[in-house]
Amino acid sequence: MAKRISESLITKIEGHGSLHVDWEGRKAKLHVVEGERLFEGILVGRTAEEVHWITPRICGVCPIAHNLASVKAVEDALGIIPNPTTVLLRRLMMTGQMIQSHVLHLFFLALPDYIGLDRATELAEKDPKAFGRALRLKEVSDEIAFCIAGRNVHPTTTTIGGFHKIPDKSSLQRLLRMLEKTSPDASWTARLFTSLPYPELDADLELLSLKGDGYSIYDGDTISSSRNDDTSVKGYKEAIEEEVREYSTAKFGSYRKREIMVGALARIAINGKGLGQKARKFAKSLDLNNPFHNNLAQAIEILHFHEEAIMLIEKLIEEGMDGTVVRPSINPPLKGIGAVEAPRGGLYHEVHLREDGKVTYANIITPTVQNLTSIEKSSQTLLDSNPAASKEELKRLMEMLVRAYDPCLTCSVH
Amino acid sequence: MQREAKKLKVGIFDFTDCEGCQVKLVSLRERLLALLERVEIVNWRLGQEKNRMDRFDLVLIEGCPITQDEIDLLKLLRERSTHLIGFGTCATMGGIPAIMDQKERAKWYNKIYGPQYKPRGIDSLPLTSYVKVDFLIHGCPVDENEIVRVMEELLSGKKPAYRGYSVCFQCKLAGNPCRLINGKPCLGPVTQGGCGAICVSGGSPCYGCFGIRDTAQIEGLLDILKGMADKEEIERYFTMFLRYTKEYNEIVRPFMERENG
Ligand code: SF4
Ligand code: SF4
Ligand code: SF4
Q: B220 in a domain, yes or no?
């Protein structure tokens, strides 16, 4: 009989899962027990305009990523190329999304492990100044989402071909002032996470991220691997396979049959040259074979996207904004793919439409599905490389490891 | 010190959902800290490592109880809590997962997971299908100010009240042009206010995630909608969040059937 280290759910991660270890055989398995919501079925029969309303509800931590992946998929199906203002505003939404999600993960879920606390709110008592910085970053990222997306969770302003509503110049200027004020907090975050004692682990990672011009998270069109094995986004379904396992309600993903890691660490590995001035300096300290360093990579990204948000707003103010919504082209293909880098990695939505705009088919591959196989493999490496550690110590390390991947089990079972 | 001892014991639980309502809770920031000082969080899987399952004065439940484990836990929580509160539309009305009913689910398990798969999910129903719930904080997601309002009332021992006004009331205050007047469907007139008409302000319709308000004139709205949308579209609006409400079953469905005949 396999003895489980933890029949209870892993705390401080998004969604429900537990780690099961067979101590005699020394094998680790990740059981995902989140209920199935069957989003790909929910979408069929709904209208094109309802897709990006429904899919954000896959995940409240990265709703903007789902919203935009859907909008992009539908626009691809309808032959729509949105105007430059729309693209800039969407990229700005994505910077807010990244900071929101990373701040939540780093300060509320991951940091307590490293500084010996049970919960983030204890930090509020122990180091109110540090906690205040975390809250300010949360606030500024929420404000970006409110201002551009209409709400901090689940956007209301986005539509196929553009925006129902675009912000006015004065609200952008207000955002800019908030961002300028919180710049020191973003730099401090990168410094703090550089100084943490990450456990050593050589997991021999293959890292995978979308790639485009610069540090692109909104419009990368190539799926790029650290092992120099790239695929066009159009071939996502053949390259990224999903396997059903009887112990999990989430499927387990792989890239060309190999375990891969996606997310912040992978993005920096693939797109690091595009990092902003300030963030680039910190990237040197990353160990690209240690999944624990995903936490550090997220902190570096907070700094990067903070800089990028300022740059995007300045550009929008300078160039002026065009709120036109682009209409579908004549004889569109009716089949489309939308890919973005969500906070946890590459996110793929595919939508097929009927002439009347009703959805006939939907496929969604989330980042965490792609990471699950790697999480299991790295947990196994951790077990194998620490033969002398006590069960207690291994249990603690493994939960930290799972958390470092920042899995969103909610997303993984959608 | 005496006050310390009297702190309410609170548990925050999440079933199958997107966790966006808990994200909203965290988004309260300083206001969340102020609330937390007045209670003892005994169990919050997303927020802390050390969790206990004793008696609770107050339990907040987010999400839809889809698996048997979730349904069992819900019943246990009901036994162990004085006040059990639904937190967000997934919990209060079934939410987005409830768009799909049990029959449809069987079909999609097969398509999405293949014939070998043993589904864990049973059905996507609101909490009230299984247990008595003391108050429903609606919203997909819940609204920050509503969380604070309801918590304040609960903490001071009062019974929280539902909003007496509609989304339209707040929509007009926000200065939005009315969708219905422009021939675009909207469920604002029958929906409980409290969200500030946030979706309409962003340019989207109101799909009613704050629940049907008291004394809503549903037939009146259906008559207006009939003039601008076909039966399927009206049905799509009402099934986004409201499929398991009494009003949907007793008024909207029969209305559609009459329209059909
Ligand atoms: S009600 Fe909406 S926001 Fe809240 S958990 Fe459910 S889907 Fe997410
Ligand atoms: S747009 Fe909708 S919510 Fe606003 S006033 Fe009109 S019906 Fe009411
Ligand atoms: S406008 Fe309607 S759908 Fe939007 S939050 Fe308010 S009640 Fe919910």
A: yes
Quick one: which H or E segment has residue A241?
strand A240-243
Instruction: Verify that B144 and B16 share a domain, yes or no.
Output: yes
Q: How confident is the model at residue A84 (pLDDT cuts 50, 70, 90)?
A: very high
Q: What is the CATH number of the domain that holds B82?
A: 3.40.50.700
Same structural domain, B181 and B79: no
Q: What ipTM was estimated for this complex?
A: 0.96
pLDDT tens for each residue of B160-175: 999 999 999 999 999 9
In the block, which residue shows the tokens 């002032």? A177
Strand partners, A207: A261
Q: Under DSSP, is residue B192 helix (H, G, I), strand (E, B) or coil?
A: strand
Range of the domain at B209: 167-260
pLDDT for position B2: 43
* pTM (predicted TM-score): 0.96
DSSP 8-state secondary structure symbol assigned to residue B166: B
pLDDT of B99-127, one tens digit each? 999 999 999 999 999 988 989 999 999 99
Residues B45 and B86 in one domain: yes
Cα B174 to middle of ligand 2, angstroms: 10
For chain A, positions 17-56, list CB contacts with chain B under 8 A: 33-38, 40-42, 46-47, 50, 53-54, 56
Question: How many domains would you assign to chain B?
Answer: 2
Measured CA to CA, the distance from residue B196 to residue B201 in angstroms comes to 9
B233 and B212 in a common domain: yes
Domain boundary among B127, B155, B183: B155
| Predicted confidence (pLDDT) at residue A169 exceeds the cutoff of 90 | yes
- Cross-chain CB nearest to B120 (options A50, A157, A249): A249
Looking at residue A2, what is its pLDDT? Answer: 36
Say if residue B245 is in the same domain as residue B200.
yes
- Asked if residue B146 belongs to a domain, the reply is yes
Q: Which of B186, B204, B234, B235 to mutate to test binding with chain A, by most A CBs within 10 Å of its CB?
A: B204
Cα A351–A357–A359 angle (5° rounding)? 40
Question: Domains (ranges, CATH) in chain A?
Answer: 5-412 (1.10.645.10)
**Cα separation of A48 and A10, whole Å?**
37
Q: Are residues B131 and B172 in the same domain?
A: no
Contact by Cβ (8 Å): B242, B191 = no
Chain B residue with the nearest C-alpha to that of A124: B33
The answer to whether the Cβ–Cβ distance between A156 and B202 falls below 8 Å is yes
